[in-house]
Design a protein that fits this description.
Distance between the termini: 29 Å
Helix content: 25-40%
Number of domains: 1
CATH topology: L-fuculose-1-phosphate Aldolase
Mean pLDDT: 92
Shape: globular
Low-confidence stretches: 216-223
Largest sheet: 8 strands, mixed
Strand content: 5-15%
Order of helices and strands: HEEEEHEHEHEEHH
Strand order of the largest sheet: 4-3-2-1-5-8-7-6
Length: 227
Amino acid sequence: MLMKTAREQIVSYGNRLIEDGLTVGTAGNISVYDPESGYMAISPSGIPYADTLPEDIVIMDLHGNILEGDRKPSSESALHSAFYLADIGAQAVVHAHSMYCTTLACMGEPLRSVHYAIAEAGTDILPLVPYHTFGTPELARAASEALKGGARGVILANHGMCASGSSLKSAYGLALTMEWCAEVQWRCMCAGKMNVLTKKEMDTALEHYKTYGQGKSDGSSVSGYNG
């Protein structure tokens, strides 16, 4: 079985999507990428997370070719590939229809730096990807354009959100942070005042995030509220 550990992780985190309220039903999808082989493990299309087994996970390359698996892969496989093909070091992607990120998406709003925690995404603003029909090459191309600024996450107009990371734990942690920040932004907008941090203030926060948290054996650090 190719990418056995990644398959098991996707099953586990798929259930967490529901438990943590980041999505409902079968909405959203998760993938893990192995840069050495060039293979991507991705959740199947339309199977409830509670019913998904490791053998249901589909193994693909980044060009849409199925390498192992009897299930139909997520309709957003090209969207996930866009993150891995971008120069952001992504090795896992979480796509969800979380309530507050999706609310901003349906308002046509990017995720702004109303709180410094957004620095976890490596930028001062998470861009809004223009609306395109889900599961289409057009959506994947639009996401690719948005990722050129170096952000590790995006808001998909009238759709939802995507978060990436160097591991599935990291990508999922960013998804949680994005949702928390989106709720703070939405509440500020409802209250009629939103104090957005300046680029200079966020640049300082981004520098601090490089050394935030406990160091790991590989010399990197754990950063972010949920990292």
